[in-house]
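Justification of resources, computational component.

The compute hours requested in this renewal are based largely on the per-chain cost of generating structure records like the one below. Each record pairs the submitted sequence with a full structure-token output. That output is archived, and it is also reused by downstream analysis tasks.
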Amino acid sequence: MDETYLKALKEALEARMKEGGLPSKLSLEENQEVIVRIADIIDNPWRPGSKIYIVVNLADGVQYRLPVNAILYRILTQTGAKIGDYLLLKYLGASTTKSGRTVKRWKVGYLSSEEASRLTSQNMQQNIPQNEVKEANQESSSKTSTDMSREDIIKFIDTMISIYGFTSIKDIDYYLNKVKKLNITVDEKFIQDLGFNLRGDKVVK
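The structure output for this chain reads:
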């Protein structure tokens, strides 16, 4: 085998080993903030016993891994942040402790996927003209599961996945049964019958 090719191959493989195939690390300037959604939580290959949070930046739709930071990890652990939840991350910059150690400081806002779904539906309802709200209320008593077709449900799930990279059964169940009042069972079979896959807590194509 050609030595030049072998060298290039070795460098590429070494880079792959260092990164572990993970997304790029999220990097923010001091006082910069970003809204993300947790896409996955995996074991940290560099620090056994800890986790790495994979997130989707809602501004650009790109996946990143959160920095391995003790303060940030403690906050996420204490809040019980899980896949599908939302975070507002603000990097406050670095400070030096009395012992001379440099510490990177973060501020975190946490919102569960259930809370976000409720908030979204409330905002949508507030933005609907009052005459439409009255008409919707008058018709709500006669609504059945046929009010939202199979194609409409698939389109909704497709939209969620295209925006966030995935969605969850909880998100779908809340929208269909709490917002749309369909009174249907949203489970793994339901998701698969619509042509989607379930990977852990995530619904994907």
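Residues 41 and 53 are 5 Å apart (CA to CA). The helical segments are 3-19, 70-79, 113-126, 130-140, 150-164, 169-179, 188-193.
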